[in-house]
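Q: You know discrete backbone vocabularies at least as well as I do. I have my own habits and do not want them to colour yours. No explanation is needed for now; the record alone will do.
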Amino acid sequence: MKRTANILIMLSMLAGTSAVADDVEDLKRARELYARGKFEEALAATDQFISEYPESRLMPDALYLAGRLSGELAVALDNFSRIIVKYPRSSVADNALFMIAQYHYAAETYDKAVTRFKFIADNYKKSDVGDAALWWVIRAYNAMGDTPSAELWTEKLLLRYPTSKYAKLVGPRKPDVKPPRPDHFTVQVGSFLKEETAEAFKKSLIKRGHDSFVTRNEIGNKVLFRVRVGRFSTRERAAEYAETLKKGEGINGWVTSINK
């Protein structure tokens, strides 16, 4: 009897090991499908994993992948929310919360986006999206027209992540809080005959986190409305921002004096 019991225990252990091996392989297969661009097949494989391995230690990763793959917003948000509620210490919890925050930003519910981005910044300080979260806090505040809050969080980003690519993006904007002087420079990105066209372009730039404004210039019998971005103390800093606009947004601009 003792020998039989030992055999049963060994068989049970082997079965458990097999199940673990299966869940690892099945999620690996789903990820490979995703990497190959076979998104529908990857989603089907991920959904099957979630159904077959409800107690798997890889469940947070599966839910995150399912959220990224889902074409239905409600389903995606539900998967990300399940990670945050049930697996708050998992390695993908911060990324799941980041995705939810970005959905709120896209929906223009900026106050909710700010709350979630701030939570990442304050509670996941070692996160690989920590600097990005701060950057999106700044963008959301700018979209709401709350310049003082945007400036406050800009300082936090520069303090916490001074070498981050996001710090480089906001760094040249520090002089913005000072009154413009005659020798300040700016980046011009467009010139229009219609004021409403210039204003629409300006608003789209502000929503994307850029300090944009419109100037009215009379040239002969024509009135031009010029769309500009940023205020800089030197031509070099303005040129750096123009290069950032070109690489990050695909917008070609040129440096000019702010009082022209």
Q: What stands out?
A: The chain has eleven helices and four strands. Confidence is low (pLDDT under 50) at residues 13-19, 173-180.
